[in-house]
């Protein structure tokens, strides 16, 4: 029997193909051809979750109360722990009752927030290049995206005076992300002050994504958007335990900041999901409240890898800024290569998977992103292969 006619909704037809799915496919093809692949493509930590966090999950998962539906907002104890962590880490005061909302990974909240605030035709302001979810979440809400180019000559910070006034007027949300994926750029107070001022002038809700705040090197401590004066009046920040504690598979994060914004996001969530597994929330509490030595250890490992790659790139004559934070290196393509061409060259000739910069947006053209998700030995091997092959 033939099947019924199955046609996808327009919102799905409109989507760009999910970047990492495409890279995964290229990688699998190379593997099938018998190649030893060094994967610097996807930003997923290769290190395990620290033991004390796993121990907490095994204990918490046995508690019958944790087997029932959680609250979409998150347990009171989890929200309090998030608020305390923000206080200790950033000196930011949050009311756990109204200014913290648990998320099933920060991607979940980032994808849903447009549904709460964007009407068809409304704009969101999205960095270019960027994590793809800001743009895609907007499309799911039938909104329009105005891209804010992040260029090397402006240290990969958007220039608000380039945004046309009629777009700013129709914009409901602005996404920012520092320390930045994919460029590894960082932002300081002066920039966040500008964001608050721009948001106030045009009634734009700011959504700051701070997934990489704890992955920083050489004594650098990234600040939070919520550190800026008046930030809580104009927006929220999305934080994640994924990168800080090697917990990408656990799906736990939270949003913090403006209570009205969180309440809107919460209205979507209460109708879509039923919160994160409470045992995972309890493990998250343990992660945030325990000694943070595991975070320092992680940073030390990434710093070592970063130095291997930067030294190697220098030897190869490839240009990249020294990252102060994140586990990404944003590498300028050599003369004569587009992003896609250089990515394909590195994969096919060297077995090294990278992400083409243009996959994160038009302004990423001319770059590839390397993720520091393999050992120093494998990174050295990648450099040797690229050197041998040439380009
Ligand atoms: C990894 C990452 C996240 C975190 O996603 P989770 O859903 O919390 O795992 C958020 N934003 C950016 C830019 C990221 O790279």
What letter string, H or E per element, gives the SSE order?
Answer: HHEHHEHEHEHEHEHEEHHHEHEEEH
Strand order of the largest sheet: 2-8-7-6-5-3-4
Uncertain spans: none
Discrete helix count:
14
Secondary-structure content class = alpha/beta
Bound molecules: pyridoxal-5'-phosphate
Spell out the CATH superfamily of the largest domain. Type I PLP-dependent aspartate aminotransferase-like (Major domain)
Mean pLDDT: 95
Distance between the termini: 53 Å
Please identify, by name, the CATH architecture of the largest domain: 3-Layer(aba) Sandwich
> In percent, how much strand structure appears in the residues?
5-15%
The fold-level CATH name of the largest domain is Aspartate Aminotransferase, domain 2
Helix percentage: 40-55%
Question: Major sheet, described briefly?
Answer: 7 strands, mixed
Morphology call: globular
Question: What is the highest CATH level, the class of the largest domain?
Answer: Alpha Beta
Total of domains: 2
Mind telling me the C-alpha Rg? 21 Å
Instruction: Find the count of extended strands (DSSP E, 2+ residues).
Output: 12
Descriptive overview:
The strands form three sheets. The chain has a seven-stranded mixed β-sheet, with helices on both faces. The mean pLDDT is 95. The chain has two domains: 11-48 and 293-389, Aspartate Aminotransferase, domain 1; 51-289, Type I PLP-dependent aspartate aminotransferase-like (Major domain) (Aspartate Aminotransferase, domain 2). With 391 residues, it is of the alpha/beta class. It is globular, with a radius of gyration of 21 Å. 42% of the residues lie in helices and 14% in strands. Pyridoxal-5'-phosphate binds at residues 43, 105-107, 131, 177, 181, 209, 211, 240, 242-243, 248, 253. The site of pyridoxal-5'-phosphate has 14 residues, from helix 5.
